[in-house]
Design brief:
Number of strands: 6
Largest sheet: 4 strands, antiparallel
Distance between the termini: 54 Å
Strand content: 15-25%
Shape: elongated
Keywords: Copper, Signal
GO molecular function: copper ion binding
Order of helices and strands: HEEHEEEEH
Pfam families: MelC1
CATH superfamily of the largest domain: protein ne1242 domain like
Helix content: 25-40%
Low-confidence stretches: 22-34
Protein name: Tyrosinase
Structural class: alpha+beta
Family: Belongs to the melC1 family.
CATH topology of the largest domain: protein ne1242 fold
Length: 122
């Protein structure tokens, strides 16, 4: 068996440390049962009406498994649930948040008063 070099040992230690950190960060979301659908909301946030509710039917939401519909001023905001239980939207794709309500609020913040345009789903 070949001897373990210093570089191999450091690489293995870094991989193990990264894996341990990733698992502990994901564990709380998994333990919380992230497959449960969030509740309904309907509020005015910064002058914009945001709504969210469990989606029904077999449309685009069922394809992504989200099963949840979010609207900003009556226009659908495409949201998707990540494997770790966080949510992203088409407007704030690189800034995951904890709930669909937070995704709607982040979209309103990002839009800065601009209207949300419908997202064409294939």
């Amino acid at each position: 068996m070949p001897e373990l070099s210093r570089r191999s040992a450091l690489t293995a230690a870094a991989v193990l440390a990264t894996s341990a950190g990733t698992l502990s960060a994901v564990a709380p979301a998994s333990a919380a049962g992230h497959h449960d659908s969030p509740g309904t909301f309907d509020e005015v946030y910064k002058g914009r009406r945001i709504q969210g509710r469990p989606a029904t039917g077999s449309g685009h939401h069922a394809h992504h498994g989200a099963g949840y519909a979010v609207f900003v001023d009556g226009v659908e905001l495409h949201v998707m649930r990540n494997a770790d239980g966080s949510w992203i939207s088409v407007v704030s794709h690189y800034d995951p948040v904890a709930t669909p309500r937070a995704a709607a609020r982040a979209a309103v913040d990002e839009l800065q008063g601009a209207p949300l345009l419908p997202f064409p789903a294939n």
